Amino acid sequence: MNLEAKAEKAKLLFLDEVIVALRSNTAFSQDNIAPDETATPGYSLFDLEVGGNLKVQKQMISIVLSANNLFDRKYVDHPSTLLFT
Length: 85
Prior knowledge:
Elements: E1 2-12, E2 15-27, E3 43-56, E4 59-67
Antiparallel strand pairs: 1-2, 2-3, 3-4
């Protein structure tokens, strides 16, 4: 399940078309598995993105700063071939 909250502003300080987005990706536990599979616990990941456009002389430059997995959550996707330790 993916969710996104986004805020946009036309101008903020020296940036134009500013955007701030918070995204979450949640996977539920997988415990109804085939004989050769391993059950995997559920998890939620959170990402943050901040960006905007900056005018330098006559050129517009897009600046974006993003952070993925903000809380440094360890996880394994169910179809992954990695093993739990």
